[in-house]
Amino acid sequence: MRSGFRCLLLITMVVLVSACASNRQDSEVQSEENYYNSARTAMNSGNFNEAERNLNFLETYYPFGRYAEQAQLDLIYARYQNLDLEGSRSAADRFLRLNPQSEHADYAMYMRGLASYNLDIGFATRYLGVDPTARDAGEQRQAFRDFSELLSRYPDSEYAPDAQQRMIAIRNRLAELELHAARYYLRRQAFLAANNRARHVVENFGTTPAAEEALIIMAETYLVLELDDAAKDTVRLLATNFPESSAFNADREFQPRPLVRGSRSLTNVVTFGLIGDEE
After folding, report:
1. pLDDT at 26
2. N or C terminus: which one in the chain shows less Cβ crowding within 10 Å?
3. Residue 114 has pLDDT above 60, yes or no
4. Cα 222–227–228 angle (5° rounding)?
């Protein structure tokens, strides 16, 4: 009995010693090259979690080593692929701060813009079915600034053409966001507010697809507000820029939609239709 107990105790001690040795081995700092090669192997196989782990070790233990700059670039990409968009943008900011004269600064700037570009719309659009034009566009504006800076500083960058196309897409989204608000105010019969939003689209996003509907809303609301001269000017502008618009009939006459201006309470008017009932 005593012999069996001793045997069990010995086995337990061997297991514990082996585990401790294994833990010590796992916690040992590897060489800079090992971390870098492990990270690259993981990235090539699509294991970006493992890649990020090794890149973090590399930055922690060898912040000024020969792989430091490349590791910082890889970390931007690994976090982006892991859908850690804020982390990717943060890594890009850090790279640009530490390596302002790097030949890869244009890449970091592009990835920073790309992270912001997808931060607003990626998850909500892909998984929740949310219309990106109905959401706040703060990150879209940040992405536009990032891409604009890239084009300004590195006009010949290989990333410049894609950045330019994304800037066009951002402008279209920002215009559609304003148009979304104009439609909302139309439904609430807040015609002045709808007109202001539509006019903002025409004045600031006149080259976007949203400009046509914005002009239609402007003309319609001017008519309801009994501003006939302004309505005529807007219709002429619509005919000049969008002669095939569905707002014109076969005789090329403007056909406004029936916007009924009902009798509204004072509260309903001053809150743009948000509070108070129509009388």
Report:
1. 46
2. N
3. yes
4. 95
pLDDT of residue 11: 53
Q: Please list, in sequence order, all residues whose beta carbon lies within 8 angstroms of the beta carbon of residue 13, skipping any fewer than 6 positions away.
A: none
Nearest residue to 97 via CA among 109, 113, 80, 83: 109
Give the HSE-up count for residue 75: Cα atoms under 13 Å, Cβ half-sphere: 25
What is the spatial distance between Cα 154 and Cα 114, in angstroms, rounded to a whole number?
Answer: 16
CB 129 within 8 A of CB 120: no
- From CA 249, how far away is CA 190, in angstroms rounded? 27
pLDDT at 272 (0 to 100): 47
As a whole number of angstroms, the distance between CA 194 and CA 85 comes to 35
CA distance 28 to 260: 76
Predicted pLDDT of residue 259: 77
Residue in the block written with tokens 């943060």: 90
pLDDT at 65 over 70: yes
Residue 74 in tokens: 């890889």
Q: Is the pLDDT of residue 279 over 90?
A: no
Per residue in 8-17, pLDDT tens? Answer: 555 555 444 4
Phi, psi of 227 (to 5 degrees): -105, 75
pTM: 0.74
Give the largest Cα separation in the chain, rounded. 109
Instruction: Please provide the distance, in angstroms rounded to a whole number, between the alpha carbons at the two ends of the chain.
Output: 96
